[in-house]
């Protein structure tokens, strides 16, 4: 019995069959690497915000439209509803803000919050007492990453930070915000400091009704959800205008554990996950693992001719069938453990790339715990048992006499291998077709016409400019550049959607999107005029047909009602698509301004000639003028980045398609090896009877490629149905072309041909005398 675990003969077998060993371990290792990365990513996604000690009592205040509210509401509900222990308002709008710290000018992401932040959430504060961290209005808490970036090895606590005209004292350093729906931020400030950035957020009249996320800590044993209707009534009573005008009619409380995958969004203020994507990735990981196991089985069964004589000898020397099965399973477990160690090394090496692709840090070290190690060890053992069981049964089932007489190889019909090779090809074709379809659809969305010119226009937010004079200095600087065709000033772009004005127009609630700009702005965007009234002066508006429809005005109207005034209608622009092509059409007001009394939110720069060279020149002028990193980007790239999720899925499916092709390649290689060894005598006899090399080669190749053709017939209707379902989520979509399926099938056919051609050629050109002698 002790001889069962003697690995000497197995290691000798592996050393003699180097190609088999390399292919087997490579297939398992690469597959396990992906499984490790996917498993860690999936666990991290599913555990988002579950580390908070009070997670069961933390909710976010929302409504039927979004998870936003007004900052001042937090104080009102804290006083009115005894079920609430604490509230914590949060705003993360202000990114890449210029900060002076540690003698440097650096960009930072700000998080506006309250002194209750560390009472509600369980983020770790490295220094200072949590209760005192934000006790004063001029206190700031910074992240570990920002502390290193701005202060190096110097203790940052007590140091000064300058943001615009405000000065803050660093009163704490916290670990970086991770694994949370709250986005990573460099600096935490008290919400009262928001005035220089956006005073409407702190308005006493709740002007910015959705700009703040209000988290609520419910008292123990309380039930806040039953007070939802009472809260709606209360909001109307205190003149919270979105409820008073019935633009919103519900109050909802979403548990913090559910926010990440909630279908109710938060206008990009919070991080949201994609449940379908996580499930898709997990499914692909499981399929990859199944492929790896199937391949191991196929490769091992393909080597039965080599191992059968060894096992027959052991049977003749007294080993039982049970002992042979245990031995072969133990060998499989050994190979799985070896492959897992290599996979772990590969996972560490590839983690940075996976993190960039998934836009989430894959923390392998953080995933290590006694429980996870136990689960991994048990999984690898189970994987080895499953992988080794079929080969063990096949080999141990052979009668020693049949093996000695050479009948063993000719009896096996490879039903198992044929089935799974076909199955692998079906899945591979589906992945390839999905990758092609998603790529085509994403490019179609990115390049969709939006109703305005977006080519070669750089959008530069003015958040980091101190005043209008500094903007003017920058504008004068870039006007001198030959690459700059023209510049414009604006309050909002069609992509960022400008500002939202929700008004009651003759008893009807209308939500306008408002874009402001100078004359150059409208010319640069190339907006198409339907009608011009000849009164385009600062303070007047262009309306879109959708805006006319919502207000009930006709094309001849010269004024309309807005906020108690009657501004002039300068004309009518054609409807444009705000955001990207997936967003619904909205009524838009284009406000004309000379920015004498208003600060522009954006500087738009149109580049002529080489866009990259022009971008670099504008970047240099900006950094020389402002002294911080450039934060502008082409509008085209902003639109492209809005489809990052689709691009990410396309890349991931493409990667796994490549892995599926590789594994199928290895599986077909194993099957061809086994098949040809079984029929080596038959091939030799055919050659003796005058069959030519090409005839034998064709017969062998066609035998293997028939499985690809069967897979294509099965896969095509499945692919068609699944891709139609996926495309149905898009109003603007491509038509499914038969070329997509044909391309996927031809790719599989090509790689299958490559995988069997070498073995088939070797068999077809072998000397029949040598083959018959060996048999």
Helix and strand topology:
Layout: H1 8-16, H2 18-46, E1 58-62, H3 73-80, E2 84-90, E3 97-101, E4 104-108, E5 110-113, H4 117-120, E6 139-143, H5 144-151, E7 160-163, E8 166-174, E9 187-190, E10 213-218, H6 228-237, H7 241-244, E11 252-255, H8 256-259, H9 275-302, H10 304-316, H11 321-358, H12 364-367, H13 370-396, H14 400-405, H15 408-411, H16 415-446, E12 457-461, H17 468-479, E13 484-491, E14 499-505, E15 508-517, H18 519-525, E16 529-532, E17 541-543, H19 545-551, E18 569-573, E19 588-592, E20 602-607, H20 611-626, E21 633-634, H21 635-641, H22 644-678, H23 680-688, H24 693-727, H25 738-764, H26 768-774
Parallel strand pairs: 5-9, 6-8, 15-19, 17-18
Antiparallel strand pairs: 1-10, 1-11, 2-10, 3-4, 3-7, 6-9, 7-8, 12-20, 12-21, 13-15, 13-20, 14-15, 16-18, 17-19
Could you walk me through the main structural features you see in this protein, from its secondary elements to its overall organization?
- With about 775 residues, this protein is α+β, with helices and mostly antiparallel strands.
- About 50% of the residues lie in helices and about 15% in strands.
- The protein contains 26 helices and 21 strands.
- A hairpin with a 2-residue loop joins strand 3 and strand 4.
- The model has no long low-confidence stretch (mean pLDDT about 85).
């Amino acid at each position: 019995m002790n001889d069962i675990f003697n690995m000497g003969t197995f290691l000798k077998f592996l050393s003699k069959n180097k190609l088999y060993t390399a292919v087997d371990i490579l297939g398992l290792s690469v597959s396990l690497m992906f499984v490790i990365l996917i498993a860690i990513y999936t666990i991290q996604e599913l555990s988002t915000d579950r580390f908070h000690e009070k997670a069961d009592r933390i909710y976010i205040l929302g409504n039927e439209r979004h998870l936003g509210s007004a900052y001042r509401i937090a104080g009102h509900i804290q006083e009115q509803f005894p079920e609430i222990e604490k509230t914590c308002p949060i705003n993360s709008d202000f990114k890449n803000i210029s900060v002076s710290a540690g003698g440097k000018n650096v960009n930072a992401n700000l998080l506006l919050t309250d002194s209750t932040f560390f009472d509600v959430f369980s983020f770790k504060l490295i220094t200072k007492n949590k209760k005192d961290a934000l006790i004063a209005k001029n206190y700031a808490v910074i992240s570990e990453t920002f502390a290193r970036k701005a202060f190096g090895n110097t203790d940052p606590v007590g140091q000064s930070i300058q943001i615009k005209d405000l000065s803050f004292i660093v009163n704490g350093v916290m670990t970086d915000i991770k694994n949370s729906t709250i986005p990573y931020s460099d600096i935490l400030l008290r919400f009262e400091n928001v005035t220089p950035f956006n005073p409407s957020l702190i308005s006493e009249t709740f002007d910015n009704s959705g700009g703040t996320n209000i988290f609520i800590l419910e008292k123990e044993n309380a039930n806040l959800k039953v007070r939802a209707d009472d809260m709606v009534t209360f909001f109307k009573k205190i003149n919270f205008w979105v409820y008073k005008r019935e633009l919103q009619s519900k109050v909802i409380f979403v548990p913090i554990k559910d926010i990440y995958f909630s279908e109710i969004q938060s206008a990009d203020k919070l991080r949201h996950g994609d449940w379908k994507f996580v499930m898709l990735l997990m499914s692909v990981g499981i399929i990859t693992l199944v492929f790896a196991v199937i391949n191991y089985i196929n490769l091992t069964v393909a080597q039965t001719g080599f191992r059968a004589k060894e096992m027959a000898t052991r049977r003749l020397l007294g080993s039982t069938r049970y002992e042979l099965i245990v031995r072969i399973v133990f060998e499989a477990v050994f190979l799985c453990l070896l492959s897992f160690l290599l996979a772990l090394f590969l996972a560490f090496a590839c983690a940075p790339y996976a993190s960039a692709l998934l836009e989430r840090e894959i923390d392998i070290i953080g995933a290590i715990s006694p429980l996870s190690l136990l689960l991994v060890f048990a999984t690898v053992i189970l994987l080895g048992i499953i992988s080794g069981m079929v080969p063990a049964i096949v080999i141990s089932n052979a009668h020693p006499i049949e093996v000695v007489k050479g009948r063993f190889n000719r009896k096996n019909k490879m039903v198992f291998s044929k089935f799974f090779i076909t199955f692998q090809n079906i899945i591979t074709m589906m992945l390839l077709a999905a990758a092609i379809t998603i790529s085509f659809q994403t490019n179609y969305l990115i390049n969709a016409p939006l109703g305005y010119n977006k080519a070669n226009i750089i959008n530069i937010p003015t958040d980091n400019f101190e005043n209008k004079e500094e903007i003017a200095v920058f504008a004068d600087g870039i006007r001198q550049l030959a690459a700059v065709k023209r510049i414009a000033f604006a309050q909002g772009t069609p992509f960022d959607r400008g500002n939202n004005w929700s008004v009651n127009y003759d008893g009807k609630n209308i939500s306008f999107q408002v874009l402001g700009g100078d004359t150059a702005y409208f010319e640069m965007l190339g907006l198409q005029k339907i009608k011009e009234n000849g009164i385009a002066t600062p303070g007047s508006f262009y309306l879109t047909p959708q805006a006319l429809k919502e207000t009930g005005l006709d094309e001849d109207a010269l004024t309309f009602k807005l906020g108690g005034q009657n501004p002039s209608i300068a004309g009518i622009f054609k409807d444009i698509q705000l955001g990207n092509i997936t967003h619904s059409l909205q009524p838009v007001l284009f406000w004309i301004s000379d920015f004498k009394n208003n600060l522009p939110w954006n500087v738009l720069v149109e580049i002529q000639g080489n866009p990259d060279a022009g971008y670099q020149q504008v970047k240099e002028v900006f950094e020389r003028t402002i002294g911080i990193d450039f934060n502008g980007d082409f509008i085209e790239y902003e639109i492209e980045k809005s489809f990052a999720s689709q691009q990410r899925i396309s890349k991931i499916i493409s990667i796994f398609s490549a892995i599926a092709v590789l594994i199928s390649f290895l599986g077909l290689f194993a099957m061809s090896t086994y098949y040809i060894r079984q029929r080596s005598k038959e091939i030799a006899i055919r050659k003796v009877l005058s069959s030519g090399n090409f005839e034998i080669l064709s017969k062998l190749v066609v035998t293997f490629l028939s499985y690809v053709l069967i897979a294509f017939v099965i896969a095509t209707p499945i692919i068609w149905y699944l891709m139609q379902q996926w495309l149905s989520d898009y109003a603007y979509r491509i038509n499914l072309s038969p070329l997509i399926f044909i391309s996927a099938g031809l790719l599989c056919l090509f790689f299958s041909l490559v995988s069997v051609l070498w073995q088939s050629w070797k068999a077809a050109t072998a000397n029949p005398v040598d083959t018959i002698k060996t048999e």
